[in-house]
Amino acid sequence: MAETYLRALASGDAEGAKAVSSGKAAEAAGKLEGKNLSARVDEISTSVQALGRGWARVEATVELTLADGTADVGWYELDVMKEAGGWKVMSFHEDEPDLSGWSLLWGRAGDLAAAREVFVGYLDTLAAGKWDDAVKYLAGPARKSMETSREVLGKGKVIGKVDDLQAQLVWVSGKEMVVKFSYKVDGREVNKIAMFYKIGKRWYIIHIQ
Length: 209
Prior knowledge:
alpha+beta; four-stranded antiparallel sheet
């Protein structure tokens, strides 16, 4: 039920989403009407976080191919309830990726090298003022935040030239990875923590702090 709803939302199928939802979730589906959305859902993974009598809370990770051919990922929390006509999605909202569990860092040197390449590419395109190219290194919350800032960030370079970049793997599990970066921008020391998510064979930045 949750998967059906999410696939319908991603593709802009308002009627399909409303057919399996009620309440606020149906209202959200109704807002799709008249919008030309064409994202393709490539993979959905769900887990039940809580279960009661005729009610469940579900967390979902959705990997997408957007209309422009680029990849993206989203995290969602849904409440589903059993009604007379069957199970319905009652509420739906965006969530943050949940990092949990122990990390085994051994054998992930290739992933660290890939993450470093992605981060360098992102910084270099920003320094060159190539906003649209920089977005292609991002997914999830990081991509949404940058797209929201298009009016400001899209008018020129955001940072200066990056030198002496060092990368340290601090946590990795499955498709998620956290890397600490240290570098210099115009002679100034900068330290950042970046979270990555793997879609297909590529790593994407999903959060920077």
